[in-house]
């Protein structure tokens, strides 16, 4: 058994790195099949940027002269290789004004080999090595936007995958344009007052469990259901999603999975009846935090969390969530939740951050203050437009550095290459949600995707 599943996973990784080395381009064709079942409907778009209508700038073709000194024709072009994400409307090209100057954003793939095209922008979820613009041109940067977990394309959480890119915008604080707080609109969202405890006590008397679970995507790398199932042996959990379901949401509208990730007021009112929410991310990655974490806090419930190992760094204070991994067993965790459930004073300490001055984490406050994009904020750019400008500014600076070098090659060195790092998509190898790999039967779904990928990521399929 020892060489079984673990061996398969390691073999998959080995093949992947060989593969990246075996061609000059990225690893090809890893996507045959299996992708659809990895889409996660319930992890959908609560705070996705609204429509690009009303985004900055005026529509012009790249060749059209821009009013003023410069010609748009001389401006660097940023080409969105993932056309679905082009954050402008209407048209295929748009002039954007950024801090350092202007660029042309386009989704017209005919510009790929144009000398003015300085950066290609990719969206991680639909990045397909087979569709990559090869051969790669030396003067072009590749920029990756991938706010989601590796579940949507885990090629990118392997070194050879992420190092294909020069610049990244991911959930990681180490990425060039970090989106770690993409699901947190602001401190006001956290400070919203909690419902009175008596109300929740009343729901408990009517037979509600202390803990809520609401999840409809069950087979995920974090293997969360395996843990929750175990926990359920020691404490009541009301589970409304398709995973481990034991209760029904009260109306058909609420049962609709399209409602489940939204800020629907009726749904929020229902969820806030619970004192504790199980909040387990679909994958375990440093700084990957979603609405599963922030929404319970908004509602004044205590998240019982497993997800980003570095989540403490982002919490409003150091006593605001319960970390599953602090407990040696599901049983011990259940005992602790039961203790808090029966001790209002101890429970309320977890909501102290809602009091004036209660958010004491300066790193969180600074991160919110300094990010330049907003979450559903009409006064700030969304992060797609923010990312575009970040790349535009980077490329303008790189052009300046190249010009400076060309003017005095003796004094000014060639600009150093900038290459993305594994820390930009920092997701350790998945482990079972409960127990060890050796304890998982070989036909368990937890192991399937890895076995599948080990087949598709081979050089043989590519050549
Ligand atoms: C965390 O809380 C303890 C008290 O429980 C306090 O002494 C400590 O300073 C706090 N640390 C931070 C970083 O806020
Ligand atoms: C971009 O990254 C590649 C490696 O993926 C590297 O070879 C190249 O020099 C980098 N380009 C720039 C402009 O930094």
Low-confidence stretches: 1-69, 456-463
Largest sheet: 6 strands, mixed
Q: Average pLDDT value? A: 83
- Compute the separation of the termini in Å: 33 Å
Strand order within the widest sheet?
2-3-1-4-5-6
Q: Would you list the SSEs in sequence order as H and E?
A: HEEEEEHEHHEHEHHHEHEEHHHHHH
Strand content: 5-15%
Fraction in helix: 25-40%
**Ligand catalogue:** 2-acetamido-2-deoxy-beta-D-glucopyranose
List the main descriptive attributes of the protein structure presented here.
463 residues, alpha/beta, 6-stranded mixed beta sheet, 5-stranded parallel beta sheet, 15 helices, 11 strands, binds 2-acetamido-2-deoxy-beta-D-glucopyranose
Topology:
Layout: H1 5-22, E1 77-80, E2 93-97, E3 102-106, E4 117-123, E5 141-146, H2 159-162, E6 167-170, H3 187-191, H4 197-205, E7 211-213, H5 224-231, E8 237-239, H6 252-255, H7 257-260, H8 265-271, E9 276-280, H9 291-298, E10 302-306, E11 322-323, H10 330-342, H11 344-349, H12 362-370, H13 383-407, H14 448-456, H15 459-462
Parallel strand pairs: 1-3, 1-4, 4-5, 5-6, 7-8, 7-9, 9-10, 10-11
Antiparallel strand pairs: 2-3
The chain binds 2-acetamido-2-deoxy-beta-D-glucopyranose (NAG) (2 copies).
Describe it.
The longest helix is centred in the C-terminal third of the chain and has 25 residues, at 383-407. Helix 1 runs parallel beside helix 14 (448-456). A hairpin with a 4-residue loop joins strand 2 and strand 3 (102-106). Strands 2-3-1-4-5-6 form a six-stranded mixed sheet, covered by helices on one side. The protein has a five-stranded parallel sheet with strand order 8-7-9-10-11, with helices on both faces. By secondary structure, it is α/β, with parallel strands linked by helices. Helix content is 29%, strand content 11%. Bound molecules: 2-acetamido-2-deoxy-beta-D-glucopyranose (2 copies). One 2-acetamido-2-deoxy-beta-D-glucopyranose binds next to loops.
